[in-house]
Amino acid sequence: MKRIKSVGALVVALVLTLAMPLSVFAETHTVKSGDELWKIAQEYNVSVEDLAKANAINNTNLIMPGQVLNIPGDGMTSQPQGQVKNVIVLIGDGMGFGQWS
User: Fold this and answer.
1) Do 72 and 28 contact (CB within 8 A), yes or no?
2) How far apart are CA 55 and CA 41, in angstroms?
3) What pLDDT is recorded for position 7?
4) How wide is the angle at C-alpha 47 spanned by C-alphas 26 and 69, nearest 5°?
């Protein structure tokens, strides 16, 4: 029974870790009339591509006044990141951490 509780706690910790956001946004910008994405990107010293990616913007020519944009902070680049994989731990899986007691 103790083993099941330990594995259950590990599963919960793993799920919570994977559910956390992969990137943190340093700040936000509320779009004003006349703003353009490239100008906002320049203002915050980020690329238009990174700004669009951080805000799921497909058309970089279409932003609306009042729209709140997440400004990517350190560590967020246009280079591809590793894939996120879901991991399911089953009772009895050792996960390479040695023997469960």
Assistant:
1) no
2) 12
3) 56
4) 45
Per the CB < 8 A criterion, the answer to whether 26 and 70 are in contact is no
Q: At 82, phi and psi to the nearest 5? A: -65, 160
**Given pLDDT bands bounded at 50, 70 and 90, which one contains residue 67?**
very high
The domain spans of the chain are 1-22+84-101, 23-82
- What rounded mean pLDDT belongs to the chain? 73
Per the listing, tokens 């994405």 go with 37
What CATH class does 23-82 carry?
Answer: alpha beta
Max Cα-Cα span within the chain: 64
Residues 71 and 23 sit within 8 Å (Cβ to Cβ): no
Given pLDDT bands bounded at 50, 70 and 90, which one contains residue 86? low
DSSP 18-87: HHS-SS-EEEEEE--TT--HHHHHHHTT--HHHHHHHTT-S-TT---TTPEEEEE-TT--SSPPPPP---
